[in-house]
């Protein structure tokens, strides 16, 4: 008898093949049979303990999100939302050179401040929520291996923790590494991969800084250090060298070509994938295409380079619940201790609005990460878009705050205040609306460039940053967005085929990290899958939740239309509701 079978659904198997009607049999956590039921055969007749009717729905592989930051959250949260609510069944964490192992005893708070600064995860939540108890990276893996999760969890070892562990303050302050330093770091990296790390990650963009403003350790690492650690990673086993390269945030438009040169040489030497963030920057809107083509040519020549690309504009969400232009106004500060609902009602009062708009800002602490965000927002009203409800991630320039202010005959800040004050659907108080400022991937105010990236053979879907940038984004919803916007709803340009979108976030992402036991629906593969009602699949408006430890805030974006999510043959969600099952485990190494 089968444990379960999924019958009557249209299967999109992750290979890029067109959908076909079939029944799927599952036993002991794996797919054991797939039989077409569209007239070519009668489907699976074997009895099963549970039969799931997928008639009128699509059956897809579980999504594999390769760019997340659940390194701390995994120690207290077995559900790993928001990812698990968007059909994700495997996450890869430890990106961008940050993480929590190895750690010198007593230096845990420094790693928390580094993570908080680089990834905007509330330090209070990490401090209260995290359960420590390790020093080495293998020790960290052993602790995570004890956890029962809603999704599978894989992790890379980060350059920042390794550098600080070996070099202490010299490493934290980005001093040059000696030969002995590099040798010691290399031993730790090899040890981590041998223990099960899926890769090694580093960051070289100056946009990544700790809470004290210091660049993440490794930002200025010389080639001898990068190659030494890359070789160590390769000696440890099948793993990925992942990075946020210099110039990825647009700070140096000449740097990306230089970065690609050493990445190409490293990938060729160690014969391991090198994956890097690739985005369109406004100052050089066609540079991404040159880098993508260079990467594709390098791949053909034997250097496995994999640009990681985003599914939509890459930036941040603005609202009274998160970052905005009025955070340093005295009258707004006076409302800080109120609940979100109470604050919304106060902000809606004409006298409060008038006071906030008329005030000067309080001083900004330039040594603290994110403290000057309000200035950037105030001077970006011509590229700050009202999203609406349901959210539109491809708005026209007529939807910018500046354009709306012009039509209303008010100042830009007045329009911004009023737009943020609007009440979102499903809420009972104002000040819940979110606006979008796209830093990257939106130079032409359309998704045409993103579509070109998503169809380019060199690109791998990534960069969701799930679990991070809690007050700025909720791009953990990328999988749902790919299905709703790119497959079904886009109206300002060409869409994408369902089978292409599915392959991009299942087979392709799994293959990059050597996770060959998943990402495709086929006999012998893990039974990680989703049953999706594509007609009613909905990506709801982002909202601010205060459900992290210590009341920490995070943006979440709900989805409806996932009928079933299954991990290792166990149903973890039904109609979007957590079943309480926790079949997910730590993933150690390529498989």
Automatic annotation (TrEMBL):
Any Gene Ontology CC annotation: cytosol
Cleavable signal peptide: none
Record has Hydrolase as a keyword: yes
Superkingdom assignment: Bacteria
Gene3D superfamilies according to UniProt: Metal-dependent hydrolases, Urease, subunit C, domain 1
GO molecular function: hydrolase activity, acting on carbon-nitrogen (but not peptide) bonds, in cyclic amides
Domain Amidohydrolase: 50-571
Stretches assigned to coiled coil: none
Protein keywords: Hydrolase
Family annotation (CDD domains): D-aminoacylase
Protein name in UniProt: Amidohydrolase
